[in-house]
Amino acid sequence: MIGKGAEKSTLSYLKWAFIFTGVGLVLGAWLGWQTTGTLSGMATVFFICAVLAVLEISLSFDNAIVNANKLKDMTPVWQHRFLTWGIVIAVFGMRIVFPLLIVVIAAGIGPFEALLLAAREPAEYARIMHEAHLPIAAFGGTFLMMVGLTYFFNHEKDVHWIVFIEKHMARSATVKGIEIAFVLILILVFSNLLEGEAADTFVYSAIYGLLTFLAVEVIGGLLDASQRAMSEAAKGGLGAFIYLEVLDASFSFDGVIGAFALTQNLFVIAIGLGIGAMYVRSMTIMLVDKGTLAEYRYLEHGAFYAILILSVIMYCQTLVHIPEVITGLGGAGLIGISLWSSIRYNRREQQAEALAERG
C-alpha cells in the first residue's frame, strides 16, 4: 500500500494539492500582471487559472478512479514511480510538451519556434491547436472507448450496476474481439457523417488510437509477464506504468483542447491544468490508501461509464461543439450516482445482516 489510509484525514491527502494551488494561482496572477500591467488583467488571468483547475478536476474524477484501480495492484516501488515521475509527465508532458508537439507537427516548425509562437502570437498558436482537434478527438476518443468497453466486455465480471446492460455485455465477451468490432462500426458511422479530407483524417486517427490501445495492452502484458517470471512480487510494474501514462494522456486531450476556449496563453493553461492534475494525484492516493473502490461497490462502474460517455462526446465534437462544462458535469454526475447507489447497497446489506442476527 502507499500509506496508512485509516490514520490520515481527507484533508491531509490534499495538502500538496493545496500548496500547489496557492503557488499556481500566485504565479497566474503574476503572469497576468506581467502581460497586461493592470489589476483587472491580473484578476482575469487568476480567475481563468482557477476555472481551468476546476474544469480539469471535474473531467478527471474518472481518471483518478481508474488510476487507483490499476495502482492498487502495483508494487510499492512502481506506485511511488507513477506518483512521482508520472505526475511530472502528466503536468509538464501533457500540459506543456503535448500542445507544443501538436503545433510542431501541424505547422512544420521546431520546438523552440513553437514556444516562441505560443509566447508572441497566442492567437495563431490557438488556431493551429483548434485545427488539430479532429485527429486528437478521434485518436483519444477511440483509446478511451476501448478502455471503457474492455472493462464491461469481460466474462469474468460478476458485479453489475446497471444489470440489464452489463450482464449482456459480460456474456457477449465470450465472442473474441467484440469490443473491437463495436468500435470499428462506430468509426465507420462517424466517418460517413464527415466529408472529404475530414473523413479520411478521422478514420486514420481513430485506427491509430485503436492500434495504440492494443499495442499498450500487448507490451504491458509482455513486460509484466517477464517481470513476474523474475519475481512474483514484481507484478504490476512497467507495463501498468505505461498503460496509466497513455491513459492519462488520453484523458488530457479533451482538457487541453478545451482550455483554449478560455485562454490562448499556453502558460496560463499549463498552470490551471497543472493544478487540476495535482488534485487527481491526491485523489488517486486517497482512493488506494482508504480502499474506497472496495468499500463503494459501484464507484468503479460509474467511472468507466463516464469514460464511455467522454469517448462518445469526443467523437461528437468532430461534428459539433460541445461545451466542456457538459463533459465535466456529465462525468462527475455519473460518478456521483454510482457513489449514491453504492451507499444504498451498503445500507441494505447492513440491514440484512442486522435482521439475520436478530432472527
Automatic annotation (TrEMBL):
InterPro entries: DUF475. The chain crosses the membrane at residues 12-33, 39-61, 82-112, 132-153, 173-190, 202-223, 259-281, 302-320, 326-343. It comes from the Bacteria. Keywords: Membrane, Transmembrane, Transmembrane helix. Pfam families: DUF475 (PF04332). Signal peptide: none annotated. The keyword Transmembrane helix applies. NCBIfam families: PRK14013.2-2, PRK14013.2-6. This is DUF475 domain-containing protein. It comes from Shinella pollutisoli.
